[in-house]
Sequence to fold (149 residues):
Amino acid sequence: MATVGADAVYWVAPPLFFVTSLGVYLGLIERLNSWNVVNRPQQVWREALYALRSHTLLFSIMVFAALLWALYKAVDIWVDGVAERIPGIKKDQRGHLHRSLAVQPIMEGQGVYSSCQRAQRMTSGAGVAGGDLEAAAAYEGVSSGPSQR
Fold:
């Protein structure tokens, strides 16, 4: 059985953006409203068919649809980039974003950090050259073993 995933967007998006662009043309240029589909369906069909038969209007509608799709992809890439920077947000195999179970708050002397943030700060070498875990743990005030005080 075929799974519906991120690839389905590539089949649904072009007709969706084309119909959306046609609707924008009918609303902005022909001044039709959504209730005209019920009140005056003949006029809506007549104007839509005229737009589809006119090469200039059809080209304009297709360019606007391509612009909408490009903007959609740009926002999608941006959201994925932001999600990758937030600790604990992971993608599954289908590309859906989920919160990781590893994000559990841990109380520390300097505030509340998630376990992912603490591990990231310790391995990034915050203030320590080379990312030495023991030195980073001491820098953060985190004990990596039994207290030797």
